[in-house]
Amino acid sequence: xxxxxxxxxxxxxxxxxxxxxxxxxxxxVKYFKDVMKYLIVFFLLVSQCGFASNLFHxxxxxxxxxxxxxxxxxxxxxxxTELLGNYHVYGDSDTMQVAREELQFALGNMIxxxxxxxxxxxxxxxxxxxxxxxxxxxYSVNIGRAEGEGYIVKQVTNNNETKIVVLANTDxxxxxxxxxxxxxVQLHKPLHALNIISAPKxxxxxxxxxxxxDRHVERGYAGQSIWDWHKLPEYRYQRYVDYARANASVGINxxxxxxxxxxxxxxxxxxxxxxxxxxxLFRPYGIRVYxxxxxxxxxxxxxxxxxxxxxxxxxxxWKDKVAEIYADIPDFGGFLVKANSEGQPGPGDFxxxxxxxxxxxxxxxxxxxxxxxxxxxxxxxxxxxERSKQAYSEFTxxxxxxxxxVLVQVKNxxxxxxxxxxxxxxxxxxxxxxxxxxxxxxMEYLGFSTHFVYLGPMYEEVLQSDTYAKGEGSTxxxxxxxxxxxxxISGMAGVSNIGTDRNWTGHIILQSNWYVFGRMxxxxxSKASEVAEDWVRMTLSNEKSAVAAITNxxxxxxxTVVDVMTxxxxxxxxxAGHHYGPGPWVDSLGRDxxxxxxxxxxxxxxxxxxxxxxxxxxTEQYFSPLKELWSNPQSxxxxxxxxxxxxxxxxxxxxxxxxxxxxxVYRYFQGAEQVSEMAAKWDDLEGQIDPLQFRQVQMALxxxxxxxxxxxxxxxxxxxQFSERPIPAKWFTPKHSLxxxxxxxxxxxxxxx
Length: 753
Ligand code: BDP
What we know:
Elements: H1 7-17, H2 19-23, H3 29-55, H4 74-84, E1 86-89, H5 94-110, E2 115-116, E3 124-128, H6 129-138, E4 151-158, E5 161-168, H7 171-186, E6 195-198, E7 204-208, H8 238-250, E8 254-256, H9 269-282, E9 288-292, H10 297-300, H11 312-328, E10 334-337, H12 354-365, E11 371-375, H13 387-395, E12 406-411, E13 435-440, H14 456-463, H15 476-480, E14 491-495, H16 511-522, H17 528-539, H18 544-565, H19 596-600, H20 626-629, H21 641-644, H22 660-683, H23 691-723, H24 738-743
Parallel strand pairs: 1-2, 1-3, 3-5, 7-8, 7-14, 8-9, 9-10, 10-11, 11-12, 12-13, 13-14
Antiparallel strand pairs: 4-5, 4-6
Bound molecules: beta-D-glucopyranuronic acid.
């Protein structure tokens, strides 16, 4: 236990010591001091036992970035009250109704005035469709630019009257516009020059919940699944609605409720009745519900003898099932499918291709406007092909063979959500198929939910990577938003980090990953730093110095976790199964491609995976000039060095001039140092943010510091067996022995598969 003296504690101690003066009582000073000493010790103990938060104001994080705290600055308050205090929301659809409710709630909190009045009296007008078109004419606004779910938020003047208008073509667009306006207020932005036009660049912006029907969350570290299947359909938590509000506030418009390792029962009437309730609750917020389905469902719950996609009975079974779903959920989004991957059934079991499997489902969904999101996360040890190459080999021949309403969902990297990977070579290589991005928001490979990691920079790095598919500038962002190959539908999925923890994500900072996912799905050109700043200002503090300090910490936190775990392009060396902690020694799992030794290839002659033409030739899957650049260690970015190359221990690392071994040790040393620095910087924030949030992050940083040293020692000592070189003493001396670290076991680590 670390004894932390916050400024509240110090203030109280001083107060206690000065009591005789305040009380002006005549007691013997010596006796008084003794009593005070006991009181102080008692107080400190209580405060360190976690009760202190009860004594002070504590923000538990439930409100996420929608805190809507009261505006204190009088000038701002005056202008907001003048322009926003009286509003009118046109229309009475459920969506316009929730837009009205959100305004009422938010403005009531922020400016203490919130009145829905007649359109003439109102200074804030919110409208969609025909109403918006009329207002646009009256105020000379070009609404055409707010396409689809887009919106315009603008200050307008007509006959000397100044108003704020939120205009959209659709109801969902108007709701997004309302959230955007509320964001401006939360950020304390002036309204006078307000002129925002925004429309999503990606059509399907979807969370993937890896939630099981028993409420276990695969790779979830924030409590149980928020879907209480057992109590549905009757029992509807307020949390369901707050979940929808949070998603709508960042433009997320879809949610896949259940795990990709799907339980076939989700398609039975018993569960569909529950799914319908969630769909009804989310609909007003512009959110469509999707389900993960098991490919063998016709056999498992339909009593058929096969699930072969070309079997007419199987096709009919899916058609009937889809019709049954749409009868209750008319805006059902469609299916997400993990097939022939990690033991899941798929069309391959019947000698059919992924396209045949996907198209069978697509044909059932098409009449209702539903989509299939077919995952490209496939690999099989038996294939004998190196794992990073398999998805490309299997899917590129199918380009052009998928039905119109199929999207192929591709993880950002070619292996599996590692702290850092080069982008998957599939991006750019399937011009005829809409490829959907799949990012991991949850913290499986990134320190579970105790590490301070903001993923914005990682998402940005991937999205801004140039695939060169159509020459320079063919970024991953342009592939997935449909621009590069002119696709009608586009998508981005994020594997959710949400659970029943009061603060939703287990660690307050990790709320930012849900937030940035939404922002980047809306606009994949977003800047991670700007998004981080917005999030900090709405969630933690609006004070300049705190905003700068926290944003800086967030922006470096991803590189830190890479240095802590897998620097220089190392990957997949986590503990077996649960992926908790280091496990570079893992070499005895059922399949080669689950073992750490398969990936790092450390030996006396060096370390790293030769994926060049001299090795497994994975570089050939990339377009020129990447395939040439990445085949040569001198022209490979250092961050991918050991991903693509097996290099001798004395290979000179260009940026530092150090031999590879020294550089590796240095990176691990630096990773642990960076975490300590982060902890120190966080300590400096005491008193600047809410005490409860401050303490929670501080305690998590204690864990992260301990684990960074664990990673450092484990990896350096393990690899040293091969390098046979010393650990430069100027950096550190390991705290643990390799034998002790290898003996650690964590049978109850959370989030297991
Ligand atoms: C891996 C996870 C596993 C998932 C799998 C997937 O460890 O739990 O089922 O990805 O994406 O990273 O299907």
